[in-house]
Amino acid sequence: MLLYLFLTCFPFLFFFKLKPVPPWPTELKFSFACILKLITNSLDITYFTPFPSRMSLKQMSFSSKVDSFEAVEGGGGGAISVLDLPDLALECIIERLPPASLCNMAGVCSSLRSMCTADHFWEKHMRNKWGRIIGPAAYREWQWHVALRKDSSHLKQGRPKGLMRILSMVRPSWWFKPKVDDDRSEQSSLPDDSIMSWFLALESGEFWFPAQVYNRENGHVGFMLSCYDAELSYDQRTDTFQARYPSHGRRAVAIENNVPWERLRAPPIDASLHNLHISDCLNELRPDDHIEIQWRRNKEFPYGWWYGVVGHLESCDRSENYCRCHQSDTVALEFNQYAPGSRWRHSMINRKEHREEGNEADGFYGGIRKLSRVEEISTWKRLWPSEILQ
């Protein structure tokens, strides 16, 4: 009986000896446990490395890095290495890291540095934080900045040569030239033209970029409900900006500090602040439409954008059923932030022949933009002055 039982069970014992259970279920469970622990620890990179979790982006240096994760671990046998995770899991972790933690992880080893500095991980951070105030003009300015840094050796000579000479001829004259830090360029292993480099330059305040400021110069009464071009630098300590407005006429460069985010925007028209915007909305303007119009004091001044609405003609009884203002060649513009009777409250333009209209006394009205987006209109209404202007 015992012999029969042994002969019956022996094949099964032999099979289990030759075919052990594969280790991948345990490894897979272990990998996912690591990922879960990462997420529950708010993606704090200090779980893996001894780098401080609140390191300033401005203080982040890429000049001295370790080349292996084992060097950081210090030979602690059996320690969990982030590099042991599958590539897909590691990328999922990296794409959820905030910028400061992403910089810390880039300092762990060369493998993680190449991953954490990739553009596709920084595009989301760039868009989320800076997308609302960064436009084509700022991107061009960054390209100038990168080109100047690459050719910075020519700055030490009295006369610019090669690319520097060309840039000095075609670069907008009123923007200040960026400061080129040769030491930082030599120490950094981060490519100048990477999105991460651009993000850190914006974050540190070393890069000045063009944008527009609502109610410039701390809400100066002469600029209420207007938006003007400026050059901006970010102050990470106060989470505000410093604005430098271009000189015009006899006025020197004006500087404003502590400009908040809500008073900034990217230029809606990618054009020089002295160029007339050719309107493409004149034929569709109707009463109560919200508009922005270019205006400048005289020919030497730059254009600013001023908020207004399309009004009714004097011959109209303002009845919705009988209004024919949209069929007239004349368009009435109203700037209701000014008191009734003010010379700034009303203006008339020709729908078919409008270019730039005005005189030295009342200023010059330029191109018109029709506002359709709710966000743009609500921004202007939020900035409405507390008192009617005279």
UniProtKB/TrEMBL annotation:
It comes from the Eukaryota. SMART domains: FBOX. InterPro entries: F-box-like_dom_sf, F-box_dom. Residues 79-125 form the F-box domain. Keywords: Signal. Residues 1-23 form the signal peptide. This is F-box protein. It comes from Hibiscus syriacus.
